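hey can u check if this looks right to u? its 506 residues, i copy pasted from the old doc so theres a chance i mangled smth
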Amino acid sequence: MKRFIVVVVLAALLSPAVMAQSGGFGASIMGWMRDHAGMEIGSVTIDGVSYSKVVVSPEVRIGRLELGFYLPVIYSSDLFDPSSWYRPKGNNEWDFGSAYWGDDNFKAALDLATDLILKIKYLEYGEPLDDPFFLKLGNLHGLSIGHGLIMRNYRNDSDFPSIRRVGVNTGIDFGGFGFEALVNDLPVPQIYGTRLYFRPFKASKLAIGVSGVADIDAATDLEGTAYDSAAGNFSLLGAGLDLDLPIINSSAVLGVRAFADLAAAVPYLQGAITNPDTLLTIPSGLKTELLWDGGAHNWGAAAGFMGNVLFIDWRLEYRYFTGLFRPALFDATYERTRSSLVQEYLPYLDGTKQISDAPTVMGIYGEAGFDLFKEKLSLMAGYMWPWTPEEGFTISAHADDELRAGLVLKRGLVPVVDLAGAVYYDKRGIVNSIQDGSFTFFDERTAFAGEIEIPIPKTPNLAIGLIFKMVAARDPGTGRVKYVSDDPTKGVLMEPTVTVETRFRF
């Protein structure tokens, strides 16, 4: 068996040159493979353990439909020994349910479906707000519900490949009405989102939308800690209302869209929870007292404009929020910070703190991005400046500022080396952490990842890839995050992961 696999790999590496030289149909096949098929051989660090890997990643493009596969073998010692292969959360993704057939056919079918769907890295068609139909499946990033007051820039692949999720985001615009929907992970869904909207006036493009996002197990990472009673019992719900009005339809020259959003967040407890910090018990139920106690709390609003001027995409908005609500509550870092958010809510739920005492914050958020040199260079940056009514227009000590930045470099721009790459960095609470001396470039409120690809000279189908990111340290058996000194109050333990790989383009 081992010899057979070696022969197959050698054939895959040698056949491109032979077929390309043969011309005709063989050259056509190899032209397609060169553009749409690739293989990666290298190393990767997962949960502090170094592994070797071989990944085949074919891609298919049909019109606007893009489909990418992820076919990995990640192993500790022997590529040809399945017992040494990495198993996320203990799952052997290459057995396709064979361990259960005959004994538990339902479990076997479920495992088969899970293993098959994990082979999809992405499937994409269309864009929200711009196309009448869009669908995104697999690794999701940059997701928003509506204009993003509840969910914006959410991603389910922050800890990829140690944690692999297959999410879904889809929507249909029927003209007079439409909907959007998403789920973070089809095999183990925990975060759901939807938006329904309609256009009540035929002569106007004004759309009125209602949206909701729910994390049905926000405290899952607290299982086995002092906050264990919250695990499986704490859900976080967000609901909103929005207005959307295209003023100038987006074109190559100009586009302007006005929007306004209103939203609130509230916990729902499936069972009673004990706060270990106060030893007080919090009864189950929907905690509407955080929304109203004679006055409205724990809500937020945003209004502004977005669009494009020539090659520059832009966004400018005013934000206002109260209580523990924050704009883009579900963002790129949410899945690693949600346990900290649960801890923030507990004293307000057990009565030791009053939601009316939480600060009211205002802010201006601006963002711009553009492509240059025939889209070979892309840049994006955004920042929110927060302040409170009491402090005036100075950055608030009671609220977090927000930074987003990204860069994409495609091949064909840098002379001689002809490298390509991408990097993004999202972070909350920069200024305040600098002022109190707690600033670190990489913590649980930071999303950071990058990639550099350097072609090997005189070998047009070979390149060296370097992938680096900061991920949450996770238990390899359960997938739950680890905490600094095993103490949830000290935050999530972050660790770097670096992958060095040789990439083959057939």
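The helical segments are 2-22, 24-36, 105-117, 334-349, 430-436.
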